[in-house]
Input
Amino acid sequence: MAHAFTKNRDCLLTLEDTLVGFMFDGLEWCSSNGSKETFTTGCPGLRECPNNTFGSFWSRASDNFAATACGNVSVMLNGSIDTPFNPGSIFASIEVKNFNPAIIESLTVLLVNKETDRTTCSHESLENLQSILSSGPLKSVNYKCRVVHQAKVKDCIDDQKTLCGNCW
Output
């Protein structure tokens, strides 16, 4: 949903919207002990082994993406899952830790819910995010959270008039 939302908005980006992200999105690669070849198929255990070349590349790309995020930063989190701000996610474990408080003014969480979801901005995991931001180097970053229904996000995706304005 985030990719569809940013597709026609030059003012909003996901990592995959950057040049490096665009070039490597959807690719997997690996090598084999004793080989100088790079393989793009048959890479065993990419998901199971966190220290593989592929994962390291995306971790570093996420690190750089977060470190250069500036101004009013927004993140879409899924309100339909048990832990919208999951400590093991790339966003929590890499990006939040690498935000530069000198260039970020605010972080807005867009908590995307389906009509039947009851998750709110007072969810325990989001309170954990607030706690991370309010203590330590990110305490100058203004935190905001807004619940947005999935149908509204879809309307915004379809609305070509709201290219960079606030859709909600």
User: Anything to note?
Assistant: Residues 53-68 form the longest helix (16 residues).
